[in-house]
Every structure is written in C-alpha cells, then in structure tokens.
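User: Second chain of the day. Same drill as before.
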Amino acid sequence: MTVLLLLLASAALSGMVLILLSNLLAFPGLRESNSSGIVASVSVLVPARNEAAVIGSAVRGL
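Assistant: Same format as last time:
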C-alpha cells in the first residue's frame, strides 16, 4: 500500500514538473515596453455582494 502511494505521488509530481516546464517554454516572461511615455489604462473588477455599508472604504483601500 505504501509503495502504491509513493508511486502515485511521484507520478503526480512528475506531471506537475512537466506542466511547469512546458509553461515556461510556451509562455515567455514579460518584455520591456518600447512605448514612448504612453500609459495604458487598466480596469479592476472587485466582486462584492451585500457590501453597501463598506464598499466605499474597500475600494479606497485598493
């Protein structure tokens, strides 16, 4: 039973390492921007439900 769990855990770990390596190859890191002072706008979506009393302070805290 212990050997089976060890094999299962090592297979799962090997799968995760394979996914990690494929993601590193497929999705390179962020590159430096070559724009000349142009600032992009960004929208932030904050999910809230029944927060009418505290939503103002929550948004200001972002």
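The chain is about 50% helix and 0% strand.

User: Great, on to the next one.
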